[in-house]
Each structure stands twice: as C-alpha cells, then as structure tokens.
Amino acid sequence: MTTYDIPTEQWAQVVEAPGGPAVYKKIPVPSPGPDEVLINVKYSGVCHTDLHAMKGDWPIPTKIPLVGGHEGAGIVVKKGSLVADDIKLGDAAGIKWLNGSCLSCSFCQQSDEPLCQSALLSGYTVDGSFQQYAIAKAAHIARIPEGVDLEEVAPVLCAGITVYKGLKESGVRPGQWVAVVGAGGGLGSMAVQYAKAMGVHVIGIDGGNEKGESVKKLGGSAYVDFMASKDLVEEVKAATPDGLGPHAVLLLAVSEKPFQQATEYVRSRGAVVCIGLPAGAYLKAPVFDTVLRMITIKGSYVGNRQDTAEALDFFQRGLIKVPYKTVGLSQLGEVYQMMEEGKIVGRYVVDTSK
C-alpha cells in the first residue's frame, strides 16, 4: 500500500483580514475527516473569484482567516475512514469551487448539488487550494484521468467546468452561434474552445488586439473589440451569416455594462446566460422587447459532478488547450494586481512548490 510522508507545516497564501492582502506564510497541514481526503496540491489556477474572496466585496461572507483558491490539481495522500475504495492514495484529484454538499437535499438528489443550501465553497467558506495540502469532501473531488498534466488541467477545474456548464444551459446547438463576452480572459479562452469542440461558432467580444488574436487562434469565428467598436450591437449581429445575431450569449465579464447590452444583440428566441459576477451589478432588459422576441435570461453557476467528468473528458481528448502562465505561489499578490488592472490574457497558475 502506498504511503506518503506528510509534513506538519506547509506554505500557503492566507487572507488574515477582510480586504486582504494575502500573506505568504507557513501554516499547519490539516487532517482529513472521515469523509474527506487530503490532497497534495501541485498547481492551482487563479480565478477572479479568488480576488473577490480576498476583497470581501460579494454578499456571501467568507471565512477569516482564509486560504483562497479553488482550481487545485494534485495527488491524494491521505483519506478518511469512510472514503470509498475507488479513491486510492496516489490518485490524481482536483479541488473545485464546490468542496462539498449534503448529498441528501432535493437539489443534491436532482444533480443540482451546487445549489445545496449547505454547500461548502473552496477558498471561500472553507480553505482552498492556495496551499500545499488541502482538504476536500471525497464525494466532490474531480477525478483527474491518469496521465493528465496537472499544471495544465488546473484551470479546467473551475473555468473549464463553469463555461462548459454555461454552454449546456444556453441550449445552443451544433452549427449555431454564441457570443462570448470576455472571450480573451481565463474563462473566455476556454469557452471559445468548448464551444468549437461542441460544433458551435463563436463571436468573441473583448477589448484590445492581443485578446482578439487569442480568440481567433483558439478557434473563434469572429471578434468584436468593444474598445474600438462604434456600434457593438450592430457589429455582433453582422458577424452572424443572416445578420440576426447569435443564438446565445455567455456573459463572463467582470463589469456591469455588458449585462445591460446582451439582449440588444441576441437573436429572437435566444438565450442570455449570466456567468460573470461583477460586484453590485444588476441586470436590465426592456420587458416589451424581451416578451415579443421571446428572449431567455438566466444564470448559470458551476457544474455538477457529471459536468465535471464531461469537461475533463474534452480536455483529456486534446480538444481543450489551456492558455496559461505559471508563477510561484509566493507571487499570488502580483497576479491579483494584474487582475485588478485587466492585464491578464488567459489564465495564471501557481506552483505551490515556489
């Protein structure tokens, strides 16, 4: 039987007070409960949610002190007494946003476990993956296929699963068109690829030439630069063959304005799917137009366990290539600064050994 030499202390990024900053320091290594596993986190993606968690600007309270992070890829090194035999020490596993749920409420029983009222959220209500050893409920870990690169797969554990779920929720079908707002960012770069892999044409919407080049390189059919556009609504519509606009819109933006524009360019009977969570933002759409054009406006949260398996399968088959840059865990503060300034293209991954 495989055994691991687990230290008593580890390096982590800890938010010690609301508003931050995160402090790089040594903390004790936790021990898993009966239904939990301890994962030696090798890499963790950095999500915009992690910045919100540090700043404390969402209406859901965070635990303090807090170890952020919810895209952790690593190895199972210890497990609780009630964990099933199909999880073995040495297995590759991922820590997702949904760290655990009750598994018995009406939502959990209908595969909507992210909606569980007792849900545990990694890097938000429980400590997450910005540490070398992290705890997760065994029932909710991502089962990472053998041989998959842990560094590259880390961002799929939130960004990939989330946009894949959003595409499913949108109802968009092969041969149709989807507009991805925020297409040059971490979530957007994967949304473009998942949509392409599902046979859907993508219109990327973002700001700047660098992001436009990234969108087209990843398989986008068209790109609209909101910073240069004189009439964004008409340009998005014109990007579709019949000029009627995309069948669906995925809103991944971190500012409010795109949420107010989307219904203007989505085609009739189209769906506007809200995924990004700009702090304090509101949705607004004209009732008359929404009714007569039969527009659907909905939210999409994170994926369930089956969505996770499907999203990872796309990745394992080589259909998703994550555009990422890796830095040491000690440099997390610099990544947050770039996020604040809107300078990130793709995704950042932190290496917990540095």
Automatic annotation (TrEMBL):
Residues 19-350 form the Enoyl reductase (ER) domain. Its cofactor is Zn(2+). It comes from the Eukaryota. PROSITE patterns: ADH_ZINC (PS00059). Keywords: Metal-binding, NAD, Oxidoreductase, Zinc. GO terms for molecular function: alcohol dehydrogenase (NAD+) activity; zinc ion binding. One of its GO terms (cellular component) is cytoplasm. The keyword Metal-binding applies. Belongs to the zinc-containing alcohol dehydrogenase family. This is alcohol dehydrogenase. It comes from Podospora anserina (strain S / ATCC MYA-4624 / DSM 980 / FGSC 10383).
